[in-house]
Design goal:
By secondary structure, this protein is an alpha/beta fold. The chain has helices at residues 9-23, 30-36, 38-54, 58-72, 195-200; strands at 75-76, 81-82, 87-88, 95-96, 101-102, 107-108, 113-115, 127-128, 133-134, 139-141, 145-146, 151-152, 157-158, 167-169, 174-176. Helix 3 packs antiparallel against helix 4 (58-72).
Length: 207
């Protein structure tokens, strides 16, 4: 199946476009996003390539992936497993390796690498849980596991597992957890931020 299990191709397209609209403040038109978003086109090409790969047509899958890289600037190995509502903002320079696994509602920015650290034909690429966000230029290397809701800062180099809800920054990356609210309430002098705005509001995430 080209579409994720339980979805028609039309439902998949609608779901992916809606995810892009929700995550990209520059996206003001579904038609424009559908027609011109390299990140969306990359995942659609990948789903076609992955369909061929799992159906035993691996040469065709590699050609589809090659064409996708030429058109979108995003390189995804046909064997990589990617969940629903995946979105790549800007797209250019993203590389996702053969044994990478990505959960639902994951977002990558440009220049992200999900790379391997072994020449053996083993599980050698990262696994990203649901709702992971990876900032521009970040490198996640080896068979590491990023649990659900992890955020990776721009240009970070992650080589170790990151627990759920943590934020990883730096080279090599170290993780920390957002400061808990006091007594279940945020201080009155702090503005209300979404999780993405909060990340961008912290310069340390761009180290």
């Amino acid at each position: 199946m080209i579409a994720p299990q339980g979805l028609t191709i039309r439902q998949m397209l609608q779901e992916d476009v809606r995810a892009a609209m929700d995550r990209d403040p520059a996206a003001t038109s579904r038609f424009v996003v559908f027609s011109t978003s390299a990140g969306l086109h990359a995942i659609w090409f990948h789903r076609l390539a992955h369909h061929f790969w799992t159906s035993g047509h691996k040469v065709t899958a590699r050609f589809v992936a090659y064409w996708s890289r030429a058109v979108t600037g995003v390189e995804i190995h046909p064997a990589a497993k990617i969940g629903r509502r995946f979105f790549i903002d800007h797209g250019m320079g993203v590389v996702i390796g053969e044994t990478a696994e990505i959960g639902d509602d994951v977002m990558l920015y440009h220049g992200v690498t999900l790379g391997g650290t072994s020449l053996k034909r083993v599980k050698r690429h990262p696994t990203l849980g649901d709702r992971v966000m990876v900032g521009s230029g970040a490198k996640i290397l080896g068979p590491v596991y990023l649990a659900a809701d992890v955020k990776v800062g721009a240009n970070a180099v992650v080589t170790k597992d990151v627990p759920a809800g943590a934020i990883a920054t730096g080279i090599p990356a170290k993780h920390f957890f957002p400061k808990p609210q006091q007594n279940g309430h945020k201080p009155s002098d702090q503005p209300e931020f979404s999780e993405f705005e909060l990340l961008f509001n912290d310069p340390a995430l761009f180290i």
